[in-house]
Design brief:
heterodimer, A: mainly alpha, 69% helix, 0% strand, B: 320 residues, alpha+beta, Phage tail protein beta-alpha-beta fold, 3 domains, three-stranded mixed sheet
């Protein structure tokens, strides 16, 4: 496989996780995106004289370095250690956490349409259940029921994907 | 547990006492119950974190990365500039011999384009004037201005802050218009068949490139629009036209159509009104650097409309 298609595949596989990973340090979405994009630009420019065996490790390390450099340049008083612990859920490793989040996002897309819509309004748009109920002209109870549904669905999908795909990152074994 | 949402509420400490006890009892029943609870909470938190992926456009971002990476092949550029330099030396030597006229020393032009959607690119010119380029705006400018004038070429949207120098007029050339100033700040939005110039301070003259006798003179909060060959002048709130750079907007009974047109220049979405009548709904609001989601929410509430943002496309529809 040529370097270019390897990089292009690595982009498809890891870009969403890398952005979520950068966001563990960067509070700003645009900044996080810019940093991750810069890593890929760098990689493409140097692709001829570099042989990378493990893109996943390389990319996450590079993004982390970009974040560190950004902090050194822009706010030397804050050190890189100030990783936003509050966003780490049940993982100790921010890389696994980011990959888990990206995977959950891809599962949300597969929810039944009505359930998906309500779940997205709550989690992505940050609307309260009352606001969702008002907007969709349904009862608050229905909203909560749909969110319950969504959670049930997501958990089942995760368990299924763990049983089906033994190569999928081991983090699912820790959790599911 | 059949009511998964109750576990989330337990996690958020939003249950009343008796509900709380029920959940705690269920949790104590078995280790697998406890594990199930942790799984739901981690799903809940992960979903919230993944929110940023909601607006992610992978194809767009990959193309952007390729464009930026390809925009920098040093080898080819070097060869061309080298050849150009040799040619320039020959021409100059020949020119000096032939004309002995300094006008032959044409300023060397540079080209810059802002490909970063989320950044404003600011360039400082030779005379200290600054140009802020919006997304996809491009500028041709000389490294050093000539003796007589300061002339640059623009396509796209940019904000200028021009250093005063009455002896050397500052000219912005767009595909169809010519903007001439002494020292001032103003915004230009120029495509191949339309130019819009908005002045925030000083005095600016805008003329039709095809017909220099057709021109308008602008003072602060005045705007010239050239559409094809017709040139007209309006009074506007100039602050809103540089909002793409400052994030500051003050709308007073402004139509939603105009609001969307102005916000598009900052957030680079495309928009669509599901109902034509909605274009005329009026908004009165003040923004100061809020992000797009917050702005959308405010517009939804105050205009009683629904706005859907999906992969960079805004759809405005009736709130029913």
């Amino acid at each position: 496989m040529s370097n270019f298609s390897a990089i292009s595949n690595a982009f498809k596989d890891h870009y969403p996780s890398l952005i979520l990973y950068a966001l563990k340090w960067m509070k700003n979405e645009d900044l996080a995106k810019d940093l991750v994009q810069a890593v890929f630009v760098n990689l493409l420019e140097k692709s001829e004289n570099k042989r990378i065996l493990d893109y996943r490790t390389y990319l996450f390390k590079s993004v982390r370095n970009e974040c560190i450099q950004y902090f050194r340049k822009n706010s030397p008083q804050n050190s890189i250690e100030e990783l936003d612990q509050s966003v780490l859920g049940y993982f100790n490793d921010p890389i696994e956490q980011a990959e888990f989040e990206a995977y959950v996002f891809s599962l949300i897309d597969k929810l039944p349409p009505a359930t998906k819509n309500i779940f997205k309004l709550n989690r992505f748009e940050g609307l309260s259940n009352q606001q969702i109920a008002d907007q969709l002209k349904i009862s608050k109870r229905t909203v909560e029921l749909q969110i319950s549904n969504a959670l049930k669905h997501l958990r089942q999908e995760l368990i299924k994907s763990r049983d089906k795909n033994h190569n999928f990152s081991q983090f699912l074994y820790l959790l599911f | 547990m059949d009511n998964q949402y109750r576990l989330i509420k337990y996690h958020q400490k939003k249950l009343n006492e008796s509900e709380n006890r029920e959940v705690e009892k269920w949790l104590a029943e078995s280790e697998s119950n406890e594990k199930e609870y942790e799984q739901y909470v981690s799903l809940w938190l992960a979903a919230k974190q993944s929110k940023v992926l909601h607006n992610l456009n992978m194809d767009h971002d990959w193309n952007l990365i390729l464009r930026i990476a390809n925009g920098k092949p040093k080898l080819l550029n070097k060869a061309i500039t080298y050849a150009l330099r040799i040619a320039a030396i020959l021409v100059i030597a020949f020119g000096v011999y032939w004309f002995s006229d300094y006008t032959i020393f044409k300023p060397e032009y540079q080209y810059v384009k802002n490909e970063w959607k989320n950044k404003v690119k600011t360039i400082t010119l030779d005379d200290g004037s600054t140009v802020s380029l919006n997304y996809m705006a491009s500028l041709h400018y000389p490294k050093h201005f000539s003796r007589k004038e300061r002339k640059i070429k623009l396509q796209g949207n940019a904000f200028f802050n021009v250093a005063r120098n009455e002896a050397k007029p500052f000219r912005v050339e767009t595909p169809i218009s010519m903007v001439q100033v002494l020292g001032t700040s103003f915004d230009v939005d120029a495509s191949v068949n339309k130019s819009m110039v908005t002045v925030t301070s000083g005095k600016v003259k805008v003329s039709n490139k095809a017909d220099q006798n057709s021109f308008v003179e602008l003072l602060p909060n005045e705007q010239a629009i050239q559409n094809g060959n017709s040139l007209q002048k309006n009074t506007v709130s100039a602050q809103n036209f540089i909002g793409w750079k400052t994030g500051k907007y003050l709308f007073k009974n402004e139509s939603l159509l105009q609001v969307m047109t102005l916000l598009e220049r900052r957030f680079h979405f495309s928009f669509h009104f599901a109902d034509r009548e909605l274009k005329l709904r009026e908004l009165t609001a003040e923004f100061n650097g809020e992000n797009l989601n917050d702005i959308i929410e405010i517009i939804q509430l105050s205009c009683q409309v629904r706005i859907n943002l999906e992969s960079n496309n805004l759809t405005i529809s009736k709130n029913e």
